[in-house]
Amino acid sequence: MRNDKIPVASSLAIVLVVANGCLFPDANTDVTGAGSGDTSVGETDAAGGDSMGSAGDAATDATDPTDTNPTDTDGGPSTGVGQSTGAEDGESTDADDGTSTADDSTSTSGDRGACRDGWADCDDDPDDCEADLSALSTCGSCDKNCDYELGESACFAGTCQVTVTIDELEDVTVTETQPDTNLHDSMTLNMDAWPSPDQMFYIRWALPEFPPQAEVTSANMVFDCFNTGGNVRVKRVETDWVTEEITLNNQPLVNQEILYRVADQFGEVVVPFDTALAQWQAGEPNYGLRIGTNNSAGITFHSSEVSPMDGIAPYVEISFEY
Fold first, then answer.
1. Which SS3 state, helix, strand or coil, does residue 118 take?
2. What is the DSSP letter of 285?
3. Most CB atoms closer than 10 Å: which of 22, 118, 147, 234?
């Protein structure tokens, strides 16, 4: 007896012929959506085309555990009539959404105008973060410039660190053996005390202009010693003096407070003056320092009359940060 039942696939093909007026060659084989509860088979999309393939994909999306954006009923991407498909629903998946991966200086958070750590937008162009906050010209912020022309500068963790070296000094020895003689052109600076002839020297230099908010971290005079004999004592001068005129008999007034006591040695001797510098910055006139000793053995330094190129002339070094 002949079986007159029509196969299911053939029935589906007939339905498609009736609905669309024609039968696509592969229409009778694509039944993926039908087996998953896909009710969009045979529907027409907004452009009048066949949406069966999209419907099948949507059904697959709904069961795909790796899909992070499946079709739902809360306004998400859809393949139904009149709904958008992700690229048109306000979401973006390319570099036009404000996130940049080509330029390391920009943010990867998606916030327009935000910069990653260590960079800033200093040119009022919201599309870039061109300023390196570790550079001397933008140390920690757009308006902090560490490029201090009078010294060696560095930027460390948003702080400007500067060291200034000064080798243009005025210095002169006064001595009891020549009480009315000016010795400014001598190649040495001499210190001695009773019962030997009293000898000491005066020294000063012009202070650099410090940037606003600068804090001094160290301030030293550096001498080359070739005759040792005790300790060095530093006092602040309180009245003016002229290098080419000063002698023991017309020497200026000196504050009797001993600011520093430094042991001498052969070679480099570092004598601090940060306390005196703070007093000058607070408004006391800068008349320099007097340096002597209480020891009768005598101490001798090279003076500024020695060429700085020889490496034995005295100099001043000031470090500060801001």
1. coil
2. -
3. 234
Beta carbons of 62 and 73 less than 8 angstroms apart: no
Q: Which fold has domain 167-321?
A: Jelly Rolls (2.60.120)
Whether the Cβ atoms of residue 131 and residue 121 lie closer than 8 Å to each other: yes
How far, CA to CA in Å, does 95 sit from each of 74, 84, 119, 238, 250?
26, 20, 20, 69, 79
Domain coordinates of the chain in residue numbers? 167-321
Closest CA relative to residue 236, chosen from 260, 215, 254, 253? 254
Tell me the whole-structure pTM to 2 decimals: 0.63
Q: Give CA–CA dist 269/297, Å, rounded.
A: 17
Q: What is the pLDDT along the chain (322 residues), one digit of tens a residue?
A: 444 444 434 333 333 333 344 333 443 444 344 344 443 333 444 443 443 344 444 434 443 444 444 444 343 443 344 444 444 444 444 444 444 444 444 444 334 458 888 888 888 776 788 888 888 888 888 888 888 888 999 999 889 999 999 999 999 999 999 999 999 999 999 999 988 889 999 999 999 999 888 999 999 999 999 999 889 999 999 999 999 999 999 999 999 999 999 998 999 999 999 999 999 999 999 999 999 999 888 999 999 999 877 889 999 999 999 9
